[in-house]
Structure formats: structure tokens, C-alpha cells
Amino acid sequence: MQFNHQYWMEIALDLAKKVKYDVPVAALIIKDNVLISKGTNKVEILEDATAHAELRAIKDASENLSEWRLNNCVLYTTLEPCAMCAGAIINSRISKVIFGAYDLNAGACGSKINLFGDLNKENQTEVIGGIMELEAGKLLKDFFAIRRLNLIIT
Q1: Angstrom distance (rounded) from CA 26 to CA 56
Q2: Residue of 47, 54, 67, 135 with catalytic role
Q3: Are 15 and 23 in contact (CB under 8 A)?
Q4: Are 76 and 27 in contact, with CB atoms under 8 Å apart?
Q5: What is the pLDDT of residue 120?
Q6: Would you write out the chain's pLDDT as a tens digit for each of its 154 residues?
């Protein structure tokens, strides 16, 4: 059975909704229509600036496939990747990136900068954004609204 982008993004969003004490972002890596790995954002919990969902999913996919080259893999993420994650995506040879919400502050798929267009001439990772954008954006807006409210109360 061939699954579409919405199917995988729904799984990523469900995973992001389970994130506690951190920005609710989740990523999946799919190969041949099979879930290879998943990752969630754990920057705050691990106190590690590199603990982004995409990097955690890439690391697990490489371990699961015993291969650092993730050719023919698709990365689904609920938020447009930042420059750090975009670099890892390009270097790991991921073929396609599908993301939900655009990140106007740090997005590296065209919102702020476009590393996939500028630095990715040789490998040509395809990027598709805005899949379930409203749902992904609402999850983030709700998280930050609660976070701001907690800062005001404390």
C-alpha cells in the first residue's frame, strides 16, 4: 500500500503532540514506504542545542540501516528545518523533505534562507512545504501561548 504525504504527516503530528517540556516538533524518515526512524525535539530536556527532531531521526535511521547515506529516504517534519538540520539532511543524502509549518524565523527551506537551493546543486534534495500547515502551526502556536502565559504567571 502506498501512503501519501498527509498520512505520514499525521503520524508526525501525533508524535509531536506527545512531546513534553519542549517545543513540539517531530520527524520521521521513510524508505520504500516503511517507517525507518522517528525523532522528537529534546533540546530543553537534554540541554543540547543539537537535539532537534530531524537530527535525532537521521541518527536513528543511519543506525537502523547501518548506512550514513540515506539515499531514497524521505524526511517528514512538522516544522521547516533550520540551517543546522538542513545541512545534516543534505550531507546524509536524504532525497526528499516534506514539512508542515513554515518557520519564518529560522527556516532553511526558503522562509528565511534556502540552503536546499543554494548549497544543494549536486544532490538535489526535493522539498515540499505546507503539508498540514494549519495543524502543524496551531500545535506550535498553542505551545508558545501556554509558555508565555506561564512566564507571566510565575
Answers
A1: 9
A2: 54
A3: no
A4: yes
A5: 56
A6: 567 999 999 999 999 999 988 999 999 999 999 999 999 999 999 999 999 999 999 999 999 999 999 999 999 999 999 999 999 999 999 999 999 999 999 999 989 988 888 555 666 899 999 999 999 999 999 998 887 776 665 5
How far does the chain reach from its first CA to its final CA, in angstroms?
A: 50
5-153 CATH fold: Cytidine Deaminase; domain 2 (3.40.140)
- Cα–Cα dist 51/71, whole Å: 23
SS3 letters across the chain:
CCCCHHHHHHHHHHHHHCCCCCCCCEEEEEECCEEEEEEECCHHHHCCCCCCHHHHHHHHHHHHHCCCCCCCEEEEEEECCCHHHHHHHHHCCCCEEEEEECCCCCCCECCCCEHHHHCCCCCCCEEECCCCHHHHHHHHHHHHHHHHHHHHHC
User: To which residue does cell 520527524 refer?
Assistant: 27
Q: Which residue has the cell 509558555?
A: 147
pLDDT value for 153: 57
Active site residue 63: no
